[in-house]
Amino acid sequence: MTPFGVRVRALRAERGITLKKMAADLALSPAYLSALEHGRRGRPTPVLIHQVCGYFGIIWDDAEDLARTARLSHPKIKIETAGLSAKATELANLLAEQIAGLDEETLDTLLGALKAKSRGGGQT
Fold this sequence. Notes:
2 domains; 124 residues; 65% helix; 0% strand; mainly alpha; 434 Repressor (Amino-terminal Domain)
């Protein structure tokens, strides 16, 4: 699943909306919406994000949060480390090799450190 897929599924569950109904209401196929939720499709387009926000009545900061979540939901990413340090290349390769075997606690720790850094939290 992608972060966007998890969020959309939670929104549907909170409101008691089936995948099939939401897909029909947004003029999407249920298969496409399911694939988007499960990470078998690329990240959603800005138009679809806008549609989802309108569908659930999401505005302002919550809409921006959903858009940010969508940007972080590409299931097949590429990390370019050319020109970066050897440590950056090693990190990218180790992460690619080991991500499938990381437990939730380790994922939370890594995500926390990276999010703190992106918020300007400095060293962790």
